[in-house]
Amino acid sequence: KSPLWDPNRVLLRAMVDAQQQLIQTMEHMSSTLDRLALDRPRDRRGSSRARHDQRPRSSKFSIHKGQTPQDKEAEVIDIFEE
């Protein structure tokens, strides 16, 4: 195993952190857009333009159920160390 101060490891950690930030931002934007769609006024015909399908959709960016950020990081590091 490489030591903790290994530059590659430091870079990987920074990349994983940046990815997590990006994911959170995208999920926040997504929920904001959903809210805006719901707030949109009805048009003259009385039909709402908001999406009717309100089921929560799983994000392909999110960490899988039961997976911690550390697991995700280990997964990414394993890929790079191959």
UniProtKB/TrEMBL annotation:
Compositionally skewed regions (Basic and acidic residues) per UniProt: 36-56
Region (Disordered): 28-82
Biased composition (Polar residues): 59-69
Domain of life: Eukaryota
Protein name (database record): Uncharacterized protein
Organism of provenance: Taxus chinensis
Organism placement in taxonomy: Eukaryota, Viridiplantae, Streptophyta, Embryophyta, Tracheophyta
